[in-house]
Amino acid sequence: xxxxxxxxxxxxxxxxxxxxxxxxxxxxxxxxxxxxxxxxxxxxxxxxxxxxxxxxxxxxxxxxxxxxxxxxxxxxxxxxxxxxxxxxxxxxxxxxxxxxxxxxxxxxxxxxxxxxxxxxxxxxxxxxxxxxxxxxxxxxxxxxxxxxxxxxxxxxxxxxxxxxxxxxxxxxxxxxxxxxxxxxxxxxxxxxxxxxxxxxxxxxxxxxxxxxxxxxxxxxxxxxxxxxxxxxxxxxxxxxxxxxxxxxxxxxxxxxxxxxxxxxxxxxxxxxxxxxxxxxxxxxxxxxxxxxxxxxxxxxxxxxxxxxxxxxxxxxxxxxxxxxxxxxxxxxxxxxxxxxxxxxxxxxxxxxxxxxxxxxxxxxxxxxxxxxxxxxxxxxxxxxxxxxxxxxxxxxxxxxxxxxxxxxxxxxxxxxxxxxxxxxxxxxxxxxxxxxxxxxxxxxxxxxxxxxxxxxxxxxxxxxxxxxxxxxxxxxxxxxxxxxxxxxxxxxxxxxxxxxxxxxxxxxxxxxxxxxxxxxxxxxxxxxxxxxxxxxxxxxxxxxxxxxxxxxxxxxxxxxxxxxxxxxxxxxxxxxxxxxxxxxxxxxxxxxxxxxxxxxxxxxxxx
Length: 607
Known about the structure:
Elements: H1 29-58, H2 65-96, H3 101-105, E1 121-127, H4 132-148, E2 155-161, H5 166-179, E3 187-190, H6 197-209, E4 215-219, E5 224-225, H7 227-239, E6 243-252, H8 258-282, E7 293-296, H9 297-303, H10 323-332, E8 336-348, H11 354-369, H12 382-413, H13 422-449, H14 453-456, H15 460-493, H16 512-536, H17 541-552, H18 554-562, H19 564-573, H20 579-582, H21 586-591
Parallel strand pairs: 1-2, 1-4, 2-3, 6-8
Antiparallel strand pairs: 4-7, 5-8, 6-7
Helix pairs in contact: 1-2, 1-13, 2-8, 2-12, 2-13, 4-5, 4-7, 8-13, 8-15, 10-12, 11-15, 12-15, 15-17, 16-17, 16-18
């Protein structure tokens, strides 16, 4: 590994060293340790109960090879479902079950929001082979919104391009010329060598311009933030000099895409309880998503350089998923990583189709698999090391569930189905299914208990309809996405790799050819399983229906949810709307004139 992997020296002043004193109001380490112990205990007890239940189901007639495979898959996949459920339960308790729950999870939010802005901040948007006008319209609105606060003088804008397509590069330069008057003299720089992708581009920026700023705000090309949100975060960073990264809670921009609408509706109502629950025990080791966050320049520049991994891609070379590693390095440097666990005017766009969603997921998957070479990185906090481990293991959950499905099918073919305790098995199935729904249910309860919450989603009938649509959507999406990740992980073992390309963000339809090329493995796998179960144990079809439908119907599901006509109809009816559609903020209203144009097919090549 490179010298950036060496542990920080323990004596003498260090560049970017954290202040010696913990700011008032942040959790004491003893309280945080107890919270983490409680969370670990709850998860381990729950996992032990699930594994015990599985032994009662599959060990009833003795143990076969398929039984052992199923048990191992449950042990591998269940922990992340359980952890998500406990995060949501704790978050719901903090939001509605105790007084000052927000202060317990996020004490750093309580700062004077009238204090003048004293720190200079660079607002940095990164681009790579993406529609330049679409991105610069968002950056221009950020500039306008910052200036409207009266504190815009403290923020300078930069556009950092890694675009490799000559045609798009030419369009970027022309777009910058058009937008520069509205960007307040923003600096534009395009690299011809894309070393380390986005992380390398930001690293180059910090070497060249970083000494002139105390903070920087990284933005993706689809990022949008209101000026008041940026000022609030700046004041928190001013008040708490030990915070090295402050992550905003990023929510989905209102969309005309049916897929994006349904997906972000589910994310939106469930993410607050989930995030505040995680913040309660993550504490100073919060998340960093790489954008819409304030970062302290000095420690990031001095202590958070990304290592180049030994070996060749897919697991060697530059790290694709850089943000979690940068957060771990910031904690290693002695600074805190915190999240604002409540919605604010901080947005991003969600993928408009199933294929775009899985394409992005595969890049994240490969990046997280690269973390295998970082688990032994010296000097990391135990919590940071666990987060890196969890980021890896969550992607192993998909092949675990797929392998369990194959093992269950094998039991049918081998005539072992009668050895299973079916009654107990059905109870276990319902328990695990319920656990997977806990974050959704917690979100529904949170909306219902929050004054004006249901009204913000268009009223009770629309919210209930949206919840039903999104639940069915998630059930159909999960197996299709899981099988694609499984196939990709198998490919990684044989050297298959993805690279950092531009992402499709505009509403567009899929052609049948696109859907077939991207989803034929899911369709064939689902059809074969359906035929097998129908021929051998037809009574099991109703219980297997969620998985079988998600696989077998993946092509029509992708075509339907990508339909611009369906998206427009849902928007007109107010179905799966987010609160910004009922009460549109000034930042979104000002951007509406730059709405993207629908296209018939994505411009980005499939992974």
